[in-house]
UniProtKB/TrEMBL annotation:
InterPro entries: AAA+_ATPase, ABC1_TM_dom, ABC1_TM_sf, ABC_transporter-like_ATP-bd, ABC_transporter-like_CS, P-loop_NTPase, Type_1_exporter. It comes from the Bacteria. Coiled coil: none annotated. This is Iron ABC transporter ATP-binding protein.
Amino acid sequence: MKNILRIIAISQPLYKILAILATLILTSSSLQLVAPILSKYIVDEILLKIQNQGGDINKLIILVSSAFGISLLALTVTVISERLGDHFEGRLRKFLTEKFYDKALTLPQSYYDSEISGKIINQLSRGIHTIHTFLNTASNFILPTFIQSIFTIGILAIYSWPIAVFMAILFPIYLSISYYSTVKWGAREVKKNEIEDSLRGRIHEVISSMRLVKGFGAEKREFSTVEQNLTEINKIYAKQSRDFHIYDFYRGLSLNIILFLVNMVVFYNAFQGLLTIGEMVLILQLVNMARIPLFAMSFILTNIQRAESGSKEYFELLDLSSTEDYKQKISPEVLKEPTIEFKDVVFGYEDSETVLDSISFKMGKREKVALVGHSGAGKTTIVNLILKFYEPQSGEIFLNDKNFKSLPHQLIRNNISLVYQENELFSSTIRENVAYGKNNALEKEIISALKLANAYSFVSQLPRGLDSKVGERGVKLSGGQKQRIQIARAILKNAPILILDEATSSLDARSEKEVQDALENLMKNKLVIIIAHRFSTIQNVDKIIVLDGGKIVDYGNPKELSLKKGIYSELLHYQVEGNRKLLESFEIY
């Protein structure tokens, strides 16, 4: 019941609406008990007339009119409660989604390094659905059912205590069987959820990487994986269904036995004249109404168990430690001529060896600094630390001589523009993608940025211009076009620090030339940090930091390092030699 208590606690901002809703539903449920009582007096009045023992037509009219008035009042209360219920449902869904999304935005990057996005989304969807269903159940059934059950047994006791005892016995028997049924169901539901999360995550990956799947002819293998997972889910569900129906049989059997005993007592007492016909009708109606709370309690227990298991991952995410506060108010400070310094920085990712080992360097004002080294040397890790995606395990990082630890994430990132190797674009319009770093950008500013990025010529030829959608991850654009959109975004943001992460590594020669020209416009008067394998992109940098095995093994300008034996000259030689052989093969060299 731990998660159920948390569900109740987490919904505290909605308590007021929930209380009003519960009161309305309770009122409606109570009004429904009045009708059987009035029917008893109506039947008795009719029998008095039939038996020539009196009977008052005026009293009969009042009773019938009262029954109609109460039913009309119950209808009105029900309509109001249902409308309020719809309002509560919308508020609840909004509240739960915002709470989950707010937490997701404050989690460290390390969490997303080890989780599949499709799995996270599935957990969000299931968590919200189960919590929403439980709270709806709580407001619509739990309190009204509890009160209605007490009232029903209380009224039955007035007319026949044996019948009240039978019905009182039925409730714990029925609930006990339902409890054991839902516990078994819930235990298997956890296992089923684990498989389903993995399955949904895989489907999300396959759909987002469909070119890879089709390119390697892996459709049959991927379909087989999904089929096997669905088969396993169905096997678990079959066991759940089997147990549920077995316990449902026992529930039904206990109900039928008790109802048989109740009917025997009612009909015998009516036959013996111990009960009037009106009282018999009242008791039978109350007994029939008591079945509704019983069925509701079974439904409630099932939903409680589903909420307990279904909200497990939702609360696991909420329990994770937040490392960022994007709502923190910071001054919109633009750093003037920023510098970055690493002092004896040591860092390693979770469950991995040390990636950076006692790294120290300084990037000066308006310098263009390149990070060079074999794959896995630590270049991207340095960039991740500069962006404060991670914290160093030891050592210190400084921005303009201020310790990173004392600087808000937002302040640091507001002063950095990014151009990634991978095409980090949203599926929305070119306008939205370019203005992503500056929400209030004017159209003329967006166009100016596109022109500086050598992108406006192709954008203006698109059917809807700036409002053309680029597709998921920019799939409707070529590699060079996507990179130039990224560059336009960085130009528009105009941050004093620029990070280029392999910005031209995946482009053909012509696209690389167009992107390089755009980058020249972007890099003016900025501190520029470049990760590059193609040395053509760093021939004009001020400094090169050469990394190997998480250590700085060389440091200098391109000319110095090209003449010095080491990793830089070795990599440069490979590229030059490769280009020379290519030219020789075409008899151009």
